[in-house]
Structures are given as structure tokens and as C-alpha cells.
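Annual report, structural modelling task.

Input specification for the magnesium ion complex:
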Amino acid sequence: MTSQDDLFHPVVELPEPTRRARYDRLVGLDDMKLLLRKETALLADPRRLRSWAAEHHGGDIAALTLFADRAPLFVFAGDVGSGKSALAESFGCDLADWLDLPVYLYRLKLATRGSGLVGEMTSLIGDAFSHMHTAGKRVSGPKGARAVQILVVDEADALVQSREAQQMHHEDRAGVDAFLAGIDGLAGAGLPVVVVLCTNRVGALDPAVMRRAAATFTFTRPGNEQRHAVLAQALDGLDIQPETIRKAVELTGPTKDRPGYTFSDLTQRLVPAAVLRAFPDRPVTDEDLLALAEELEPTPIFTEKR
Ligand SMILES: Nc1ncnc2c1ncn2[C@@H]1O[C@H](COP(=O)(O)OP(=O)(O)O)[C@@H](O)[C@H]1O
Ligand SMILES: [Mg+2]
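The model returned the following structure:
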């Protein structure tokens, strides 16, 4: 059996201040955040749904069994730089506060995808899920969960691409099957384990994977209000005029020739570029920001064909 260090990046216990701050900085995702909190809380501790039904509907309701059968899988899909990884790796902070339980964040090392030996992929995925099973059992008991584990499978495109995809090697198909088996093993096991799968290419995701997901969250490029919120937050303290921020919001929106900026185009390219232009001799000016917003090309839309 593969050791934990070979399967996962170091496990992180949440809540934790850095990730908490990252979660709070994610704008425009409030609906998603709320739904994610409820969905994971119910998967992690189904007794909450039962006591809610008892309180508000006077006892068990048919819908309870529907929830019991769901696979603990969420799919985060959408454009690059739209906050999938950031949310996947930080929402546990909110969950931990809400449930008043520790949350352990496991991130699968897909880079360990190995030398392509037949069976290697299968056993890696299989081992990862057995690990989650064992860890999940350790923290569940008759009085409910004592902790929640989140497994994040990021950049999962190659892993769970459609089994029908022509170009796919045998090894990759084995990965999909192992993943499905892992999810099915967790479904109905009643363990406080939740799997989040992030992908840029929802179109290529195996239909069997999509079918199992308790929910699919679609991430998009920021609209005007969201770009405004992100820019205002990222430029805080730089003495940029409100009018300049409004102009930058316009400049970074979609035009007929190109899409609008992604979230990360704003936070990881535009604002840092403005700072680097001024550093080390002078302050950042409104002019820096506007010149760069004219100049920088947003990340192209991720296409299915590559
Ligand atoms: N909704 C958002 N609000 C604020 N910043 C965001 C948002 N989404 C993404 N970002 C910024 O973009 C960076 C990259 O996002 P990331 O989660 O890695 O994108 P993805 O995984 O979807 O490609 C984040 O670290 C953050 O700085
Ligand atoms: Mg990502």
C-alpha cells in the first residue's frame, strides 16, 4: 500500500488563518459558499438533517433517504483562474467553524501518476480512497463525526476524462474506473468524508463521474461587480481614485474580440504588474493601473480541443 506521503500533499488541519483569509477574499461566490457549507455539513453529519426534519416536519421525511444515498462528491468546473482551487482548499475553514469540528484537508498528489505501468494508476487511486476510508472511520462514532475529511482532487482532467475519449491510454481508463469505485465505496458508508474534484474541462469529464456528483458547481469569469470588488480589495491602500477603479473595471471586461479578465488575471497579473512597475522608486499611480489594463491580454478561454 502506498504511504500517505506519496499519496497526498501534507494534510492541513482547518480552520487555519491563511486559508480562512483566502476564503474570505473570494468574492462573488456567496451562493456557492452557502450551498457548499450545507451540502458538506449534511454529508458529514446526516443527523443534522434528521433533527431538522423532526423539528420542522414532525419526524422522518421521505427526502431523508434521498440524501442518504448520495455520493459524497462535488465537481468544481469552469475556466482557469476562476477560484476552483482556492475555494476547494479553503471552504473547510467555514465548514469547521459551522460544525465546530476540525476539518482535515487532503490533496491528492496527481503528479505521482507514475511511470505508466499498467495498474499503477489504479492502485494509487484505490490506495488514496482506502486511506480516506480508514481516516474517516477513525473520526466517526456513535455520537457522530468528530472531524471531517475533505479530499481535493485538483487538475483532475486527465484522471477522469471520458472513458470514451479516443486518445486515452489504458492506464487513464483504469484511473477513471478506480475513481468511480472509490466514490461508490464511500457512498452510503456514512463516513465524514467529502471528495471535491476540480476540472477545467467539464465537457470531457466522464459521464459516470458527473452522474455521481451530489452537486456540480460551475465557475465563471467575474462580471462588472465582481471585478470591481476584487480590484477594490486588491488595490486597497494604494490611493487609487474610485473613478480609476471604475475605468479599470471597464477595461478588463469582455470586448467583441476577447473575453474579460479572469479573477486571477486581476489578482495575479494586473495588480502585481502595477506594483512592479512602481517598485522600488515611486508609488503606484492611477496611470499604472490603466495603462496595464489596456495592455494585458486576458487568459484565453480554455477550449476542449488541445
Ligand atoms: N472569486 C474570486 N474572488 C477573488 N479572487 C479570486 C476569485 N477566484 C480566483 N481568484 C484569484 O485567482 C487566484 C487563482 O484562482 P484558482 O483557484 O487557482 O483558479 P482555478 O483553480 O479555478 O484555476 C486565486 O488565488 C485568487 O487570487
Ligand atoms: Mg486550479
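Residues 120-138 form the longest helix (19 residues).
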